[in-house]
Design brief:
three-stranded mixed β-sheet; 21 helices; about 500 residues; 434 Repressor (Amino-terminal Domain); alpha+beta; Arc Repressor Mutant, subunit A; 3 domains
């Protein structure tokens, strides 16, 4: 028995039976002749007993060897066994958060039946609503980014080392030809610029890497900035020697958390390679120390660095590392006129407390948000010119204010769609220390909420849906109040 899940289940069974018989480790040690430390290791799932020792344990605990070593958990351990069979706990990066998987299962095994029933319900809901392992992996990855303030010095160092290894200027902008040379000459990768164009089933993908052929197939509909990022990311996979890895730009299946983590590392490396950390930080310090700042400069920065808005806004992560700003969020919004629905593509809140400002699925995102307004400007523009802007957004319920900076443009890779990226920094003492224009009266100030369905702002001209969530909540409260009054 070498499988971790099998060892853990065996250990939990022995623990449960030992406690049911009111046996201490010392008692069980005397009756079986096995040392206390060895029994402790077995119960923690760290060791697997040999057949003769398993027989002694089964005899002492008055069960069969077959049941003790089998996969039948019994009713009390059924929810734990379900988690083990799902493989979620084995694949999630619990060690990154300082958590021992055996301790988690140990807590669950010792919990009341009501807690185990709750865990079982969560597993069932996940299965019924198709919340597969990849959802858990991506959620864990997002939490890992948040716990590290989305800043990873080892990847920053790797990007600088890569520049030095290929005799590139430590801070200058890298053009597409330089990036191609690294991939071709450094790793022997063949690049096919229009490699996905003839296959309609792959039209939504930006790249596919074929390891046997050592070939990177690209979609020619990408902008030069998007192409540069895909090549930089492929460099990251090879320079960092990341395996396992997804072979498509958008992973079609997720087999492990390590695959999700490696995909993130390659993307982070690409951003750090394209926009060197120290030079960009100096640029921010110079621009943000002024009493005013033109958001239109963002377009010049994009042209200067040769990157997409997504890459530029991801690079604002240097603020969190060097300025100590932890109340920061980032989101990317997409919009299609035919359905008139703003959809959050990506969202990251560096402070756990700010998760209360996270978007809600299938609800109408507040049209007062800067990102929504910027998309409206681009859609209305006759030439679909990029739109940039600032806004101070005060949340209606909490009164907290965030300085928001955003940019919107037509999606070059997805015709008929518009996207906006935005960062928000909470206006506090730490922000004012580095962002001197935060109180510039020229910056628009707006009271906002998350979604129309949860908003009680009166006479809102931007409202596109009734506050049904709040109305249902009020109805339930009225029922509770009435029952309380009747029952005294």
């Amino acid at each position: 028995m070498t499988n971790l899940s099998e060892r853990i289940l065996l250990g939990l069974k022995i623990r449960q039976l030992r406690q049911e018989k009111n046996l201490s480790f010392a008692d069980l040690s005397r009756q079986t002749g096995l040392s206390v430390s060895y029994l402790n290791e077995i119960e923690k799932g760290k060791k697997s007993p040999r057949p003769e020792k398993l027989r002694k344990l089964a005899d002492t605990l008055e069960v069969s060897e077959e049941w003790l070593s089998g996969d039948d958990p019994g009713p009390h351990l059924a929810p734990v066994a379900a988690l083990l069979r799902s493989n979620f706990l084995n694949e999630l990066p619990l060690d990154m958060f300082g958590i021992d998987v055996s301790r988690v299962l140990d807590l669950l095994a010792g919990a009341p039946l009501q807690i185990n029933a709750f865990v079982s319900t969560l597993v069932e809901l996940a299965q019924n609503h198709a919340l597969g392992e990849d959802n858990f992996y991506f959620s864990a990855m997002r939490a890992y980014q948040e716990l590290n303030n989305n800043y990873f010095p080892e990847l920053e160092d790797a990007a600088r080392a890569c520049r030095a290894e290929y005799d590139l200027h430590p801070t200058s902008t890298l053009d597409l030809s330089q990036l191609k040379r690294i991939l071709i000459n450094g790793y022997g990768i063949r690049i096919v610029a229009d490699g996905l164009d003839s296959d309609p089933e792959l039209a939504t993908l930006r790249s596919v890497y074929a390891p046997r052929e050592k070939t990177l197939y690209l979609n020619s509909r990408m902008s030069p900035e998007q192409t540069a990022f895909q090549i930089s990311k492929e460099i990251g996979f090879h320079y960092l020697r990341l395996d396992p890895r997804p072979l498509a730009s958008t992973p079609q299946s997720v087999n492990s958390f390590q695959q999700v983590l490696n995909n993130f590392k390659a993307g982070y490396f690409a951003v750090a390679l394209m926009i060197e950390e120290r030079s960009f930080l100096q640029r921010l310090e110079q621009a943000f120390s002024a009493s005013s700042f033109s958001s239109g400069d963002l377009v010049h920065w994009i042209d200067e660095f040769g990157v997409s808005p997504d890459v530029l806004f991801q690079r604002f992560n240097v603020m969190t590392a060097h300025w100590g700003l932890d109340h920061v969020f980032y989101h990317r919004m997409a919009y299609r006129p035919e359905d008139d629905h703003y959809r959050l593509d990506k969202e990251l809140h560096l402070h756990r407390e700010d998760r209360r400002y996270a978007g809600r699925l299938d609800e109408q995102y507040c049209r007062r948000w800067l990102s929504s307004q910027l998309i409206s400007q681009v859609v209305a523009s006759p030439h679909a010119a990029p739109a940039t802007g600032f806004m101070k957004a005060t949340f209606h319920r909490t009164g907290e204010t965030f300085l928001c900076l955003g940019m919107a443009r037509s999606a070059s890779f997805r015709p008929g769609e518009w996207t906006a990226v935005m960062i928000g920094v909470r206006v506090d003492k730490a922000a004012r220390k580095y962002i001197h224009f935060v109180d510039d009266p020229a910056i628009p100030h707006m009271e906002i909420n998350l979604t129309c369905e949860r908003c009680d702002i009166q006479d809102c001209a931007e409202r596109v849906s009734q506050p049904v969530v709040l109305e249902n909540r009020k109805k339930r409260q009225a029922i509770r109040d009435r029952i309380r009054k009747i029952t005294g």
